[in-house]
Specification:
There is one protein chain. Helix content is 42%, strand content 17%. It has two domains: 144 residues, 3-Layer(aba) Sandwich (Rossmann fold), CATH 3.40.50; 124 residues, Rossmann fold. The protein is globular, with a radius of gyration of 18 Å. Helix 4 crosses helix 10 and helix 8 packs across helix 9. The strands form two sheets. A six-stranded parallel sheet has the order 4-3-1-2-9-10, sandwiched between helices. A four-stranded parallel sheet has the order 6-5-7-8, sandwiched between helices. The chain is α/β, with parallel strands linked by helices and 276 residues long. The structure holds D-glutamic acid. The site of D-glutamic acid has 16 residues, from helix 3.
Length: 276
């Protein structure tokens, strides 16, 4: 059983995709909505939330935890601090950028706190990737996605709310144009909420540039963890996907179903409110 958490709906994108890649695994997802957004909190506050979320998921019996939030991943220490593997996503996105960039100039869209932490820059150095990274904080983007009523299963806005489409265009211009002006050929979607905006971001930056996220290398990281534990990705009995949300959020269940889509084969979805 794999545990995943984020501050809200961002990590549901990765939950949905990991569930497709590992259909014989159960998952527990925690949306820590009561503390959303993480991106404007202090580093030490987010680090404490990470600890609490990890403890909550470990108590549910998960064997690995994916921190499906870059702001939270940025606070993870290099040394192992937990009794089970806790996998961040900063490194996975960087490896994808390394793979896809030709000119090695990479833009990073992220929350204010992720940018302040310089976690992507530090990790890039540690991994010796030889990338030039240009950071761009996007304080308004995650709240826009979390509360914006996007038709997120399709990754694009399909409603007829012109204001929202126009708002997004303004945000994308403000956040992407400085990166384009720097000559980047790859843009890291360094906040899981932005993964829903991939088509809009790709459209803005044009075909010659690429928007990348952590999925491909995160799957590799998970396989590696399983291998090191000398455990196969065994079939579990009665696959379940349990989703918890902190606080009282009436809209969350609806958002979950929008994102998850129609296929709920053998999946038990329990959206529960809890206090952490
Ligand atoms: N989804 C989180 C991330 O990947 C950020 C959203 C927030 O600010 O809470 O950084």
């Amino acid at each position: 059983m794999i545990g995943i958490f984020d501050s809200g709906i961002g990590g549901l994108f990765l939950l949905r995709e990991l569930h497709k890649k590992f259909p014989n695994q159960s998952f527990i997802y925690l949306a820590d909505k009561v503390h959303f957004p993480y991106g404007d909190k202090s580093f030490s506050f987010v680090r404490d939330l990470v600890r609490k979320n990890v403890e909550f998921l470990a108590d549910q019996g998960v064997k690995q935890i994916v921190v499906a939030c870059n702001t939270a991943s940025a606070t993870l220490e290099k040394k192992k601090s937990y009794s089970i593997p806790v996998i961040g996503i900063v490194e996975a996105s960087l490896r994808q950028a390394k793979k896809d960039s030709c000119n090695k100039k990479v833009g990073l869209l992220a929350t204010v706190e992720t940018v302040k932490s310089r976690a992507f820059l530090k990790k890039e150095k540690d991994l010796n990737l030889d990338l030039q990274i240009y950071q761009q904080a996007c304080p308004r983007l995650a709240p826009f996605v979390e509360n914006g009523g996007w038709a997120i299963s399709q990754g694009k806005y399909t409603g007829n709310n012109k204001d929202k489409s126009e708002k997004l265009s303004v945000f994308l211009e403000e956040y992407l144009q400085p990166l384009i002006d720097k000559g980047v050929d790859t843009v890291i979607m360094g906040c899981t909420h932005y993964l829903y905006l991939e088509s809009a971001i790709s459209q803005y930056i044009g075909e010659s540039k690429k928007a990348v996220g952590p999925l491909e290398f995160l799957v590799q990281d998970l396989l590696e963890v399983k291998k090191n534990e000398s455990r196969e990705l065994q079939d579990e009995e009665g696959i379940t996907v349990n989703v918890f949300v902190s606080g009282q959020d009436k809209g969350f269940e609806k958002q979950f179903h929008q994102i998850w889509g129609g296929n709920k084969n053998n999946v038990r979805i329990v959206v529960e409110s809890l206090k952490i």
